[in-house]
């Protein structure tokens, strides 16, 4: 039976939340649940028995308080993707970076403020592959009395794109790590937790009922674990108005492209002939050479339905013409076509870095009991990042603990032929310094587009392109209306230049958002120091911070 969803503008309240004008309180109980999908009954870990999990729906400036109860058998943390966590770094969530994980039967209360945020973000587990099913929307509306900087929509619809395995995702990751190999492909993609009508043993289909001749705001989130995605709605165009909860100039397109971690706010005008229209999602493959075909390439797409009010729920939906899975031109055109709103780009630059992203191999670790000789590995500037095991990096920074990390992450690309090394290396940044990073993703063997996510900050995307970045090419920078983001897809054989101000003391993870690449080492950490005033100092940890 189709799942009909009516979402009037502003009416997205959850029974589990108790909110006033300043504070929104939520309780997340993380536990096992059983789902029937793709002819299988699968045990998953989810929040409050929901997939996706609860929507956090707040106004700009609110305080958010989330009590997390870990009733699952696994260690876990929750990350609030895109929340800057200004002076609340203990709430950021990446396991062993800002906290030790919440152990089974443990609890932790995340407290943070959403001042300076508007738009669509999301939350997700940040420990092992639990992110595959532990995720949900985080919507921040303009505070009361403030309007959107675009025509107010008549209706809003969150569209969370996911990835589905018919087996325990923790085992999927464990098997891959123990063998030193890439994890198995997902069995399907989902829209708001449902695969739609075109997969084997078709399950429920997410359906959004809309009124003709109205404006609908789609809040699209790529919560997929390891896959870039194309998203289309048959018979309709999109007007993109924000990405990663940062407003953009209006950009019209018929195809949205989202790297893992990205969000897009897009207006759709329901001016087509009344009828039924598929919303379709397919993978955008960027790996070269191409990997083994996954389930979505066998002729099935994850689908939802945009259904005009008055149309029969049994009407045959129109199908959009989807891009080729490997259409990098469509993806690059989408990313390069976006423009932000005019902004004061920080200048001058105090810290210049070039970070090369690389995939390769390292000798099997003794703990990798199913590994033969070499294991897949990844690195930034030749350093394959390893998380600490006894204390989080933020605790070590706050307590000046020694032996947990070294502050010697290199600012530049190592010479050709330099062997990859393992390490817990961070880059120290003075408080309030302006940092420019050139991200270089060489066309090697293998290579793929890497979605690089920065915790604790938004950054301006000043330039991006294919080939090798030419130093001194600042004349190509967009310093007028660059897009602001928290996650950027750096194309295979390409580069991107980002800039941000390090005005938030703490330890901030900078890593690939393909979750398969995190245990392989594709990350590093920025250690931002204290300022000179009370409001620029790292605060002490909360009393209930989990211990290792």
From TrEMBL:
This entry's Gene Ontology molecular function terms read:
copper ion binding; hydroquinone:oxygen oxidoreductase activity
- Cite the entry's keywords alphabetically: Apoplast, Copper, Lignin degradation, Metal-binding, Oxidoreductase, Repeat, Secreted, Signal
> Principal localization?
secreted
Gene Ontology biological process: lignin catabolic process
From which organism does this entry originate?
Triticum urartu (Red wild einkorn)
* Lineage, opening ranks: Eukaryota, Viridiplantae, Streptophyta, Embryophyta, Tracheophyta
One CC-aspect GO term: apoplast
Q: What's the protein here called?
A: Laccase
Signal peptide segment: 1-21
List locations, semicolon-separated.
Secreted, Extracellular space, Apoplast
Question: What family is reported?
Answer: Belongs to the multicopper oxidase family.
Cofactor note (record):
Binds 4 Cu cations per monomer.
């Amino acid at each position: 039976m189709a799942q009909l969803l009516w979402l009037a503008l502003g009416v997205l309240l959850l029974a589990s939340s108790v909110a006033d004008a300043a504070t929104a309180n939520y309780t997340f109980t993380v536990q096992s649940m059983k789902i029937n999908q793709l002819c299988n009954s699968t045990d998953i870990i989810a929040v409050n028995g929901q997939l996706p999990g609860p929507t956090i729906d707040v106004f700009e400036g609110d305080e958010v308080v989330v009590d997390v109860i870990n009733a699952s058998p696994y260690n876990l943390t929750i990350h609030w993707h895109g929340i800057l966590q200004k002076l609340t770094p203990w709430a950021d969530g990446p396991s062993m970076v800002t906290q030790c994980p919440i152990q089974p039967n443990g609890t932790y209360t995340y407290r943070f403020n959403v001042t300076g945020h508007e738009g669509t973000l999301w939350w997700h587990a940040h420990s092992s592959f639990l992110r595959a099913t532990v995720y949900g929307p985080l919507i921040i509306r303009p505070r009361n009395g403030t309007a959107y900087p675009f025509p107010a929509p008549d209706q809003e619809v969150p569209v969370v794109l996911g990835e589905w395995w018919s087996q325990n995702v923790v085992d999927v990751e464990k098997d891959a790590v123990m063998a030193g190999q890439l994890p198995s492909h997902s069995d399907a993609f989902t829209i708001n937790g449902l695969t739609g009508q075109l997969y084997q043993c078709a399950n429920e289909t997410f359906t959004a009922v809309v009124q003709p001749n109205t404006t609908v705001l789609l809040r699209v989130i790529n919560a997929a674990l390891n896959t870039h995605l194309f998203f289309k709605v048959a018979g309709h165009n999109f007007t993109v108005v924000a990405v990663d909860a940062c407003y953009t100039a209006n950009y019209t397109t018929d195809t949205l492209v989202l790297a893992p971690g990205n969000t897009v706010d897009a207006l759709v005008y329901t001016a087509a002939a009344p009828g039924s229209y598929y919303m379709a999602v397919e993978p955008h493959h960027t790996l070269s050479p191409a990997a083994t075909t996954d389930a979505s390439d066998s002729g099935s797409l994850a689908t939802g339905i945009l259904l005009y009010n008055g149309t029969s729920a049994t009407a045959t939906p129109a199908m959009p013409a989807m891009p080729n899975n490997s259409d990098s031109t469509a993806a690059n055109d989408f990313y390069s076509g976006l423009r932000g709103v005019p902004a004061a780009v920080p200048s001058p630059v105090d810290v210049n870095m070039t970070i090369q992203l690389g995939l390769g191999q390292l000798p099997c670790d003794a703990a990798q009991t199913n590994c033969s000789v070499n294991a897949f590995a990844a690195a930034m500037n030749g350093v394959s990042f390893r998380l600490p095991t006894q204390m989080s990096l933020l605790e070590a920074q706050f307590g000046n603990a020694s032996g947990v990390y070294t502050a010697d992450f290199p600012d530049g690309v190592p010479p050709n032929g330099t062997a990859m090394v393992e390490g817990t290396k961070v880059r120290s940044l003075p408080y309030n310094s302006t940092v420019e990073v050139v991200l270089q993703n060489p066309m090697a063997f293998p290579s793929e587009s890497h979605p690089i996510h920065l915790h604790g900050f938004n950054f301006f995307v000043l330039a991006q392109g294919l080939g090798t970045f030419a130093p001194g090419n600042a004349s190509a920078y967009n310093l007028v209306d660059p897009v602001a983001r928290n996650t950027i897809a750096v194309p295979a054989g390409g580069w991107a230049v980002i800039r941000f101000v390090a005005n938030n003391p703490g330890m901030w993870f900078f890593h690939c958002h393909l979750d398969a690449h995190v245990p392989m080492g594709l990350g590093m950490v920025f250690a931002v120091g204290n300022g000179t005033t009370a409001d620029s100092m790292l605060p002490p940890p909360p009393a209930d911070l989990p211990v290792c």
